[in-house]
Fold this sequence. Notes:
With 144 residues, this protein is mainly α. The chain has one domain (8-143): YbiA-like (Tetracycline Repressor, domain 2, Orthogonal Bundle), CATH 1.10.357.40. It has helices spanning 8-14, 33-39, 45-52, 57-67, 75-93, 95-103, 129-143; strands at 23-25, 28-30. The chain has a two-stranded antiparallel ribbon with strand order 1-2. β1 and β2 form a beta hairpin. α2 runs antiparallel to α3 and α2 (33-39) packs parallel to α4 (57-67). The chain starts with 7 loop residues before the first helix and ends with a helix.
Amino acid sequence: xxxxxxxxxxxxxxxxxxxAHNVEYKGVLYQTAEHAYHSQxxxxxxxxxxxxxxxSAYIAWQTSQKYKSQQISGFExxxxxxxxxxxRAKVQQHEDVKEALIESGEDVIVKNYPDxxxxxxxxxxxxxxxxxxxxxxxEELRKK
Length: 144
């Protein structure tokens, strides 16, 4: 049986880190999961404030990229766990996200994005780490 792929418009509405869902993580309320994620890269207060004050998730990402050489040691090894923890917080804090995840049923959740690590890449052979995170979180919900 061929599994259905979760609709991309629904993925973008609920599951991308850029979605319009604030997230409280480690006692700080961030505008989006993207803001929260990039804030975990740094300890420099100036950088953290610049990311927190970014007026969009894209600008938070862009700000982080310019300081990437100053990110904390070991971040790259922890980044998938950090994003999963932030997404878990998003599910716990937003009923609409939780419902969308439950309603996704057995659908394969794919981040249809050219990034070959977080998404499926330009040729569809990417790692889809973001989709994998959401499918793991869905399994956690089912076990409760």
